[in-house]
């Protein structure tokens, strides 16, 4: 049996392009499973339903490898589970080398797929490391130049100290103090404590 899996990250994204590709390969609505969820993990209801249906020698078709998920280490584990534990096949439309179907006794399809997947995983992991390294380098350079990173520094109202002292002397409540200063109550209390106003 052939099945298709389609995934988009949000309910607003369009699935038509992926569905059209499935129709071209003679899949029907009954054999196409769709999730509108993030690819951060495999806890997706229709994907899990599809996996329960998959049997030995079935074929799972996906448009691209990132439709399975966005973490290549997780994808490799999932790929192995489907192709080695369940003994079903996978075909990735956008990358025909990722096709585990075996003609007769020829094992080349599975072998090449495993190698390509490992290479993709390595490239993805290297790119993630490079991004992290560039970010760290950018942060270091910015700090050396005295650039403030993170949230903009909160500027206290001019009359903060005067109102905070009134609060400390119990002349007004923190709710009234925050209202006078046009601040959030939690922010007011945080800065009262931070500046150790007596």
- Mean pLDDT metric: 86
Number of helical regions: 7
Number of strands: 4
Straight-line distance between termini = 76 Å
Contiguous uncertain segments of 5+ residues: none
**Which shape, going by the Cα principal axes?**
elongated
Order of helices and strands: EHEHEHEHHHH
**Oligomerization state of this entry?**
single chain
* Percentage of β-strand residues: 5-15%
Major beta sheet, specifics? 4 strands, parallel
**Secondary-structure-derived class:** alpha/beta
Could you give the order of strands across the largest sheet? Answer: 2-1-3-4
Q: What is the share of helical residues?
A: 40-55%
Please describe what this structure looks like:
The chain has 198 residues and is α/β, with parallel strands linked by helices. It is 49% helix and 10% strand. A 4-stranded parallel β-sheet has the order 2-1-3-4, with helices on both faces. Helix 6 (174-181) packs across helix 7 (185-194). The longest helix is centred in the middle third of the chain and has 37 residues, at 108-144. It starts with a strand and ends with a helix. The model has no long low-confidence stretch (mean pLDDT 86).
């Amino acid at each position: 049996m052939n099945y298709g899996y389609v995934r988009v990250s949000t309910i607003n994204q369009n699935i038509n392009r992926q569905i059209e590709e499935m129709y071209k390969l003679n899949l029907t609505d009954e054999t196409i499973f769709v999730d509108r969820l993030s690819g951060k993990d495999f806890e997706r209801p229709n994907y899990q339903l599809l996996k329960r249906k998959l049997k030995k020698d079935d074929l799972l078709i996906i448009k691209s490898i990132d439709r399975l998920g966005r973490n290549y280490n997780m994808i490799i584990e999932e790929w192995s589970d489907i192709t080695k534990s369940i003994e079903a096949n996978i075909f990735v439309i956008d990358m025909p080398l990722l096709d585990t179907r075996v003609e007769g006794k020829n094992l080349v399809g599975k072998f090449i797929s495993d190698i390509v997947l490992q290479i993709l995983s390595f490239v993805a992991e290297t790119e993630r490391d490079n991004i992290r390294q560039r970010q760290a380098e950018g942060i270091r350079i910015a700090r050396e130049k005295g650039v403030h990173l993170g949230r903009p520094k909160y500027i206290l109202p001019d009359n903060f100290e005067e109102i905070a002292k009134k609060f400390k002397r119990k002349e007004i409540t923190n709710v009234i103090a925050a209202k006078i200063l046009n601040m959030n109550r939690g922010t007011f209390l945080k800065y009262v404590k931070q500046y150790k106003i007596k």
